[in-house]
Amino acid sequence: MVQASAGFRAIVVGRRTAWLVALLPLLLAGLLIGLVGEGERERTPLDGLPAGLDSTYAAELAEELPESDGSVAVVLFTADSIADEQGALEQLTSELTGGAPTLQVAEDDTAAIAVVPVDASSATEVGEQVTELRDRLASDVPDGVEAQVTGPAGIEADLAAVFEGANFRLLAVTAIVVALLLVITYRSPVLWVVPLTVVGVADRLAAVLATHVLAFFDVAWDESTIGILSVLVFGAGSNYALLLISRYRDELRTREDRREAMAVALRHTAEAVLTSAFTVVAGVLTLLLSLTPTTRGLGLACGVGILVAAAFVLVVLPAALVGFGRWIFWPKVPHHGDAALVDTRSAWRRVGDAVARKPWAYVAGSTVLLAAMAAGTTQISAGLDTAEQFLDTPEAITASERIGESFPAGTAEPTQVLTRADPDEVLAAVEDVPGIVSARPSAEGGGVTQIDVTLDSTPGSAAGDRAVEDLRSALATYPDTHVGGAGADALDETDANARDRLVILPMILGLVLLVLGLLLRSVLAPLILGATVVATYAAALGVSWWIFTGLLGFENLAGNVPLFAFLFLVALGIDYNIFLVTRTREEARSHGIREGVLRALGATGGVITSAGILLAAVFAVLGVLPLVVLAQLGVVICIGVLLDTLLVRTVVVPAIIRILGDRFWWPRRTA
Hints:
Layout: H1 2-13, H2 18-35, H3 54-62, E1 71-78, H4 86-97, E2 104-105, E3 111-118, H5 123-140, E4 146-150, H6 151-162, H7 166-186, H8 193-216, H9 223-252, H10 258-285, H11 293-324, H12 347-357, H13 359-374, H14 395-406, E5 415-419, H15 423-431, E6 436-445, E7 448-455, H16 462-474, E8 481-484, H17 486-520, H18 524-551, H19 561-591, H20 593-620, H21 628-660
Antiparallel strand pairs: 1-3, 1-4, 2-3, 5-7, 5-8, 6-7
Domain SSD: 205-323, 500-658
Family: Belongs to the resistance-nodulation-cell division (RND) (TC 2.A.6) family. MmpL subfamily.
Transmembrane segments: 18-37, 166-184, 191-214, 226-248, 269-291, 297-322, 359-382, 502-520, 527-548, 560-579, 600-625, 631-660
């Protein structure tokens, strides 16, 4: 194994092989990206619904109905007096529906609605037809009448519009942020181009490979999957690159041969990077246990992405850097004979010395601070209704809210009952449920009947949830009868997210502890490091909740944010502890663990801090997408990574190691 590893490093940094190792993967990746492109899979309405819950069973029955690929748009007309233009509006709705007019006028005469079928099988087609419908209405409605489109098709179209060009925009902003931070970190107008190019190609290749893997295994993904994947690959890949380049630059000060310097840097860095990568991969793959297909797809995609990022950083990047030579660091070129960073009194070494003088005080103070920050977690409520999912309110949501002023609140998004039982009996049972304004069969075929139910409360509200639960209770005795629709979907999504947290969070933590235990061959060290990242997560979530509710005006947290935030903060946050502890172990062999951790902090403090700031900034970029869930996720991870980088890794972990000494490695005696 050692000989194979040495042989691999010799090929990567070899005088005759380095450029081949650097260029061949980049060329092959470019060909694959250009010629093959991202994978494709036919998406279904079940992709975003949790398996085994009532609303999903309803959606499965709906798929058996004739023309189940279609959707409906609800057109809202508003005016001072609808009656004055009622004839023209009835003529227009008749043309839109291809049949008898379906105009329904509100009692207050200021609004009217019409249901228009949308014959489309994909979100793209729905978006195109809704756009055409809106253009037609804008040109054909009478003067003094305003027309807006909402309903299931309108909301789906506006949600799809959020992601039009979003992945390119997200990628561009991410690349700019990474480039800027790399320039600041390296203080070189040249060096940053190399890691950014390598990580950028890795990101595009990861998107291609991940989507083809998902398509091969028929695992669902959605528009946000590739965006989150890019953020993760850029963030983790740039972190790994920072660690490698920092160690390479340090080795150039002690070795005249740059190839030898890179071989040593690669040998010491590979263990930390591979451990980090496998920790993250193990963490994200726990999402395969989720009830929701698109969440499972995100986990598998991210696993592929991390492996690609680590491979490019450990193979392509060192070969490219060696090929360019020392001048790539210009103007701060490291020369043989310069003092190594570990032997200097860096700012981070001075921080470590301060911690070493009073480690108990720093541990106690940090614990109190993190506990105070985590207090906000006791107030958290999770779950967003349809209107709360957007940062910028689109037309479909505005129209839906306006419909609620003149019609029953559930008119724009009817609740659906799907049944194989006697439809007349089911209809009678539905009509007896409190909170139901109206119910009517809307589709039938294949032994399945759909009954559209209008609630007097907004779907997703507390009253709407009670109505859905009452419906399900009333229909429990009818075979193969299920309740779906927006409100039922949101209610079941909340239950599914709670179940996922209960199952997946302990699994993530257990896998991270196992990987750390294998790396450090210790029991106590993984438990301590795991506890620090969990404390960081709780503090970040608590502070974020105060920000969301106090500053930004949110009432709830998106249901999957706690799970995703825990995953990324624990899996990625442990990286910095891995980087610090592996260097501590190396230094402890010659200087003892108490001095070793201070030397490790002095040597890695700058690069780990830079990596943490870069990762925090990259996840904050998720805020460029106008979806609440991604904005909230970006804020929590940004705060958590900064806490982990600036407080936990800098103060808490070194202080604990200073207190415990060699007991930190228990049951081992020494590093």
